[in-house]
Amino acid sequence: MAGSPPPPPSPPPSIDPRSGFCQKTKIFHSLRPAVPLPPVTVPLSVASYAFSLLPSPLPSHPALVDAATGSAVSFPDLLSQSLSLAASLRTHLGLSPGHVALILSPARLEIPVLYFALLSLGIAVSPANPASTPAEIARLCRLSNPSIAFAVSATAAALPRHVPTLLLDSPDFQSLLTAVPSAAAPAEVRQSDTAAILYSSGTTGRMKGVELTHRNVIAELASFFTAQGRRLSPVVQMVTVPLFHAFGFIFCLKAVAAGETAVIQTVRFDVKKTLRAVDRFGVTHLTMAPPALLAVVRVCEDGEPFDLSSLEVITCGGAPIRMELIKRFVQRFPNVRLAQVNNLQLTANLRISN
Question: From residue 304, how far is each of 77, 108, 269, 337 by CA, in Å?
Fold first, then answer.
C-alpha cells in the first residue's frame, strides 16, 4: 500500500527468530528494531552524547532533586558544574583518559555531576558500596587501580592510604563546582574506552569488576531515548536504588539525558518517606528493588493514606519479581505499569489480569 512503512527486516538465517541466538557466533541478538547509534569510529564520550540529546533551550524544570530536603539542581547548573568540575580535575589534579576514579559515597546530588565530569574526561567511573569493609575496598582498588578516590567524611577511612582522596562534603570539592573552566582543548574520548567499572555483589564469590565502554553506555541511553514518547509534562523519575549499582548508575544518567527530573533518595530507604516524596514531587516513574516494591504493596494494602495519583510506572531490577508479588501489585495498582529490568535493559512490561 502506498505510504505504508516497509516491513522490518528479517533476521539473518543464522539467528533464531524466537530467541535471537546465533548458532554460528554463540551470541544472542535483540529482536527489537535497531536503535540509531553514532558511528563507532567517532570520538564521543557518554557525557557528550547525553548532553547532545537535551533540547535547546534547556528544560526549565529541575534536573536533580534531593528527596529528603527538596534541594534542587537546574539543568543549566548541572551542565556548568560538570564542565567546571571536569576542567578543575584535569588542570589541578592531572586526571586524563585512562585513569580510574573510585567513588565511595552514599547518594548525593553531586554524584551525577561527578559522573558526567569524569565521563567527559575519559576517566573510568568506579562506584563502590559505601558500606564495604576496608578489606573489601582494598580488593576493589587492586582490581581497578584507581588514580583518585571520591568519598565523604564518613567513608574516607575505609580507603587505602595510598589512594589520593577528595571529599565530596568538603569546601575544596564544592569550590571545584563553580571554578571558571580553563580554555584547554576538550579530552578526546573513544567510544571503545572504558567508561565505568562496576562491581558484582559477591553473592556467588568474591566481588568482581565489570567494564563498560562508552559505546555500551551510549547504546543504553540511546535505547531509552528512542523508546520515550511525547508527553505533555516531563517525567519525574525517583531513584531509590543505590547510585553505585548498575541499576542506579544507568538510570541517573538516563534521567538527565532524557531531560527528566531525577529525584534522588539520599537517605536510607524508608517506604513511608518514599511514598510521601512521590506525592510531594509528583513522581511519575519510580525505580526500586523487589524488596522495596513488596514494602510499598504491604503499606498500601494496609490502607495507609498516600496520594500516588501521579505514579505511572514502577521499574524493578536487581532480582526477578515473584509472580505472587506481581499479582498483588496489579490488584492494588491497576493503573500503574510494572517494568522489570534485566541486565540493564527493560526487557518486559509486566501486566497480570485480575
Answer: 37, 29, 17, 21
The total number of residues shown for the chain amounts to: 354
| Sites in the chain below the pLDDT cut of 70 | 1-13, 182-185, 202-203, 342-354
Closest CA to 254 of 200, 211, 217: 217
CA angle 35, 213, 97 (to 5 degrees): 130
Q: What's 156's DSSP letter? A: G
- Report yes or no: 118 and 125 within 8 Å, Cβ to Cβ: yes
Q: What is the largest CA-CA distance in the chain?
A: 70
Exposure string of 38-77, with b = 16+ CB inside 10 Å and e = fewer, is eeeeeebbbbbbbbeebeeebbebbbbbbbeeeebbbbeb
CA distances from 87 to 90, 120, 180, 184, 218 (A): 5, 10, 8, 8, 22
- pLDDT given at position 282: 96
For residue 52, CA distances in Å to 55, 79, 82, 180, 291 come to 8, 11, 14, 22, 36
pLDDT tens per residue, range 316-353: 987 888 999 999 999 999 999 999 876 444 333 333 32
Q: What is the pLDDT of residue 185?
A: 65
pLDDT digits over 96-140, tens only? 899 999 999 999 999 999 999 999 999 999 999 999 999 999 999
Phi, psi (degrees; rounded to nearest 5) at 19: -110, -20
Q: Which CATH class is domain 50-57+74-226?
A: alpha beta
3-state secondary structure of 276: helix
For helices 246-257 and 214-227, angle between their N-to-C axes, nearest 10 degrees? 60
Find out whether 51 and 99 touch, Cβ atoms under 8 Å.
no
Q: What pLDDT is stored for residue 32 in this prediction?
A: 77
For helices 323-332 and 290-301, give the axis angle rounded to 10 degrees: 40
Tell me how far apart the alpha carbons of residues 262 and 336 are, in angstroms, rounded to a whole number: 19
Query: Measured between alpha carbons, how far is 217 from 222 in angstroms, rounded to an integer?
Result: 9
In single-letter form, the type of residue at position 79 comes to: L
Domain ranges of the chain: 50-57+74-226
